[in-house]
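Listing S7. Sequence submitted for prediction.
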Amino acid sequence: MCSRVEQGLFLKTKTYASQQVRSCAEAYRRSRLKQQLAGLWAEKTGTADPRRWSERYETPVLACVSAEEYDAAQRAFSYLTHSDARDEDLREAIAFFERAQFFAVLTDVAQVDAAFRHNVLGRYASLLTDLVAVRKSSRHLVFLRMTGSRGIPTWQNV
């Protein structure tokens, strides 16, 4: 983001100066949208971003998202951690966060545990009933992997 006007900008050509001002304005607008998105996430979850939420609850955040919201959530989460989002992407993510239903799951430990059982343990949930012990011992067997270049927490067997 541009924090100040380039020295001597007003001595440059009108085209160059306009381009620089436009670039700074766009960067500022994008940073404000990103701050708004991050503020919504923090307000609804009490954490800085999806990775911090996953670390706190030892559950992949996407395991708590319904199939209907999964793709939109994954995109919105990526915009929180990377600066390559366009203004339209950020606005779409903000609108999604404002209407998303999965935040009710993220703020309810019983629902988080149910999602962990169903989406992480799956068919082994009936065998692995002590979630605290599973999460504690699985730190050595399972890790939070950063998918692609987006930094969205998911679980993967080692």
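Caption to Listing S7: primary sequence and predicted structure tokens for the chain studied. The longest strand covers residues 142-147. The radius of gyration is 20 Å.
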